[in-house]
Design a protein that fits this description.
Length: 226
């Protein structure tokens, strides 16, 4: 790589030689260029060999087999991208990329990856659920498209009360209140009396304005009018 730096210095110095109007300016540019080469030689890695992508992927493949827990997010994404190229109709690599992008705080990239996975396998419930949840988390809303995703996921996983309740939230917000209430009644019948689900349901109802906020027990109720 050192020759690239030398070429750059030659071009910069040559241009400055013809453009500059004084020997002082030319000398400054030349010294700066030589200093850059010296700094790179001492601190950089001029002897580092190129690392073609294919070679890196071979190493990542080997790492995935030996010690998958040690893989970085970017390595998992690179491997998933290769899988996606090798198997264009497979939803799994796109779903994996979505999970990794979401974990690396890239929700927009994750949304695109989940949508790509869903186009390849519209009935993949893992993808359906993750896409619905990510749409909800990024917008704070349960719009029509997200509601349909939650309904599809709940139909395939009726034991997942959370996604069922969120599907009901979406129906309620669309004005389908009777349908939402019927869905919630069935879900409440399955929820444990002492489990965390009922508290989550109450929080969701308050979040979306279905129920009024609960009163703080430390605050006394207002005196009734006389």
């Amino acid at each position: 790589m050192i020759w690239l730096v030398l070429v750059a210095v030659v071009f910069v110095a040559g241009g400055a030689w013809f453009i500059a109007k004084s020997m002082k300016t030319r000398a400054i540019v030349l010294v700066a260029g030589l200093a850059a080469v010296g700094t790179y030689w001492l601190l950089g890695k001029p002897d580092m060999h190129d690392e073609p992508l294919d070679g890196r992927l071979v190493d990542i493949e080997s790492l995935a087999q030996r010690d998958p827990e040690s893989m970085r997010i970017d390595q998992v994404i690179a491997l998933a991208q290769k899988r996606a190229l090798d198997n264009p109709n497979d939803a799994a690599p796109h779903w994996i990329m979505g999970k990794m992008l979401e974990a690396s705080n890239n929700p927009q990239g994750a949304l695109l990856a989940f949508e790509s996975a869903l186009r390849r396998d519209p009935n993949n419930i893992n993808v359906v659920t993750d896409l619905a949840d990510l749409r909800f988390k990024t917008t704070g809303k349960v719009d029509g498209a997200t509601t349909l995703l939650y309904q599809q996921a709940f139909a395939a996983q009726p034991e997942n009360l959370r996604i069922g309740y969120l599907a009901g939230i979406g129906l309620w917000l669309q004005g389908k209140k009777a349908e939402a209430e019927a869905m919630w009644a069935g879900i409440n019948a399955k929820a444990s009396e002492t489990g965390p689900e009922r508290q989550m349901f109450a929080a969701l109802r308050q979040m979306f304005g279905i129920d009024p906020p609960s009163r703080d027990p430390a605050v006394p109720p207002p005196n009734p009018p006389k």
